[in-house]
DNA sequence: CTGAAAGCGCTTACAG
DNA sequence: CTGAAAGCGCTTACAG
C-alpha cells in the first residue's frame, strides 16, 4: 500500500494542480478540454485510481451500496433465490459503477452489524432483502435517514421504497386457476406468518376462495417456513384432510410436498395437483415438472438497485414503489395437460 | 450525514484528547483503566461509531474483506453453492468483526472491477471463489501484493494460499466404490476443463480406472459445465455407450442426468447407477435420493476467511493451504441399498 | 499514561 | 478555466 500513486503525482505529471486533477476525476465540466485529455492520459498511463477511503472522507461519495439479507430465513440459503437477487443487483451496480457490501443479518450480531452499516459513513444507501416483518434493520435505517429500498414490501411502514411482486393477486390467480381446472378441495401450504410474502400469498388464497363463495377450511391451510422440509411436513398433515389440489407458497416447499406425496403413494397430479411459487431453476426439472408462479428475482435485484440510486441522487423524500409482474408457468403438476383433465367448472 | 458525532465530541465529553479517544477505540494498552472506562461509557451513551473511511485513510485498516465470484460459472448461481459459501464467510467475518464487499466477476466489467478492488485502498484482503483457470483477478492480485486466498486451488500458481477439498482423491474413491459394487462400465460426466475442480475430479476418475487396470474409454467420458442442463445433455450422449454407472462431477449435473435417464426410460440405480458430488440440499430429496460426495462448502468459506485474516495479520509471506475432508454420502442412486445389489468383485 | 501536531488522499468553496 | 488552502475524521510518532 505504501507506494501507491496519489493525485499529487498525477498533478505533477500533467502540469496542473491537484484541484484540476480532482475535477477531471469527478467529471467537473469546468475543465478545459485539452487539459482534461492530458490529465486523463496521465492517469491512464500511470494506471491511477483514486483512493476510495479518501473520497469517502472528503466528499461522502463512496459509490458503495449495502445489501442486507436476514439469516433468519433459512430458505433463502438453500434456494438459489439469493444468487439470483445478487446477480441482478450486481448487474445494476456494474452499469452504474457502484460496488456492494454484503451483510447477512445474523440475529446474534444484528445490533453491531446495524451500527456498522449505518455508522460506517461508507455506504450511500442499502437494499434490504426479504426482511422479517419486525426487522430491526429497517427501524435503524429509518432513524438514521439512510436511503434504502426493500425487496418485498413492508407490512406496516407502507410509505417506504420497495420493489415487489403482487403476491396476493398472483396467489389468488393461481388458486383460481386450480379451481377452474375443476379441483374442489384446494388446500395451501402458506409461507411463515412473520414474512410479508407468506402473509400476502395466504391472503391471495383466501381471496380466491371468497370469489367462489367458499369459506376457508382451517384443515386445508398449513403454514410452512418456505423450506423443503417444511413443505414435506405440512403436506403430510394436509393429507389427512384429503385435498385434491394444493397451492404451495414456494417451490422449495413444493419439492418437499412432492416428496411427502411420493412416500404416501399419491400420484401428482392425478391424486393431488400442485402449484408452486417462484419458478426456481429446479422447478422445470422435478418429476413431474412443477407448475408455478414465476417471479422475476434477478429483475427485482436490478430494479431495487436502480431505485436506490435514484433515491440517493434525488433525495429520499420521494419513496418509490415498483411492482413487478409474475407469470403462471403451466407445467405438469397442476394437471392441466393430462388427458383425464377434470372438467372446467 | 452532516451532524454525525466525531471523535472530538467524545474527547470533550470525556475530558481527554482525541489521541486518547483514538487509543481507546483501538484497544491500545497504554491507556489508564479508568480513563478507558470513562471514554467507553461516553461512546456507548452517545452511540458513537468511528467513521470507517477516516480510519481507512489514516491507518489503512478498514476491517473490510473482498469476495470475488466469477460470473462465468453459471452453475454457481443456479445452485445454492454460493449462499452456503457466503454464510461461512459471513460467520467468520462476524466473529472477527469484519465486513465483506462482494464482486461478481462479470467478464464485461472485469478490468474495471479488478481496478476497483485492488486500488480502492478499502480492502484488506480478498477471497476468490472458484476462479477460472486463467482468471485475470488472480494475476492482478498477485501483482498488487494484496493478501488473498482462493477457494479451490490454482492450477499453476501452486504457492498461493487456498482452501480446497481433495477433489482428485474424493473422485477416485467414489469411482472405486462404484466398482466395488460390481459395476463394469463406469462412465463420468466431468466438470469443465477450465475449472480446476473439473480437472481434478476427472483425474480422480482416471486414477480409479488405473487402479483396476482399466484403460479409460473416451466414449465413457463426457464433459459438462456443472449445470443441470449440461448433465442432461451429456447423459444422453453417454447412453449410447451403455454405461452401467456414472460418476457425475456435481449434483446439479446429476439432477440433469437423472432427468435424461427418466426420459429414456432407464431406472436408477437398476439400469444405471449414479454418484454425484457436492451434497447440495436437494440431493437428499431427489427420486431416488442421490449418493454423492459431500463437500463442506460453508466450512470452506469460514476457513478461507480465517486464513485470509491470518495472512493479513502475519504478513503474506507464509501462504497457507487447507484441505478439507469430504465424505461419501451413500443414499439410493448407487444401488448399494437395493435387494438385488450386484456382487462385490 | 497523555496531548499537540502532522499526516492519510482526496474535495470544494473561494478568489482570481 | 485554474490554483491555494482549508477541511473531511481519524491515527500515530514524538515529546513529556
Structural class of chain A: alpha/beta
Give, in spatial order, the strands making up the sheet with the most strands of chain A: 2-1-3-4-5-11
Report, as a whole number of angstroms, the end-to-end distance of chain A: 73 Å
Would you report the number of β strands of chain A?
12
Q: Major sheet of chain A, described briefly?
A: 6 strands, parallel
Please tell me about this protein's structure:
Two copies of one chain form a homodimer. With 345 residues, chain A is of the alpha/beta class. The first copy, chain A, has three domains: 7-50, lambda repressor-like DNA-binding domains (434 Repressor (Amino-terminal Domain)), CATH 1.10.260; 64-165 and 297-324, Rossmann fold (3-Layer(aba) Sandwich); 167-295 and 327-338, 3-Layer(aba) Sandwich (Rossmann fold). Chain A has helices at residues 7-14, 18-25, 33-46, 52-59, 75-78, 81-96, 110-119, 136-144, 167-180, 196-211, 228-239, 251-263, 297-314; strands at 64-70, 99-105, 125-129, 148-151, 162-165, 186-190, 221-223, 245-248, 273-278, 292-294, 321-324, 327-329. In chain A, the strands form two sheets. Chain A has a six-stranded parallel sheet with strand order 2-1-3-4-5-11, with helices on both faces. Chain A has a six-stranded mixed sheet with strand order 7-6-8-9-10-12, with helices on both faces. The longest helix of chain A has 18 residues, at 297-314. The mean pLDDT of chain A is 90. The interface between A and B is large, with 56 and 55 residues. The structure holds a DNA duplex (16 and 16 nucleotides).
